[in-house]
Amino acid sequence: MESESTNQVSRITRFFRRISQVYQQLLDTWTPYSIVRWIVTVALLAVYLVRVLLLQGWYIITYALGIYHLNLFIAFLTPKIDPALHDDNFDDGPSLPTKSNEEFRPFIRRLPEFKFWYSATKAIVVAMTCTFFEVFNIPVFWPILLLYFITLFCITMKRQIKHMVRYSYLPWTRGKTIYHGKEDSGKVIQANPDQ
Prior knowledge:
Blueprint: H1 2-30, H2 34-55, H3 59-77, H4 113-130, H5 142-166
Helix pairs in contact: 2-4, 3-4, 3-5
């Protein structure tokens, strides 16, 4: 009796482990195709918004989705090591250059692009799923939510842009400056034939 129950638990565990492996393999396959991933996510968001507009409801879910996406976006724009919180005496790995003559260091995000995409897409799928249940259709006056979201977005982005200006960083890597040698003079230099 005990071996049968252990065998069933083992089968269930193997089944879910296999599903997890297939899912991870699918994510690994999608990793290099960032433009395609984002196009699919934007299309999924458009389908969600059309569904909400046609159903005339689920505005609270849409508002929560917008706030969550704003939170992800701010984490995407923020450096992993915040210069405002960083103590100059304590070296905690790579940091943003503060002077023009410092060594180039790439921008390291608090939230990497893939995790940003993955979290945003999962949130859209969860929000879409919520639109199939009437319990989540809480009646609200949607123009107030829209006005509040726009205000929150503007205030948050203003603060983020001020932070970027104050600590002189851009949330994307411009690449290291490439120095080119002198122009070719056209002279042919022969190798020493004696060697």
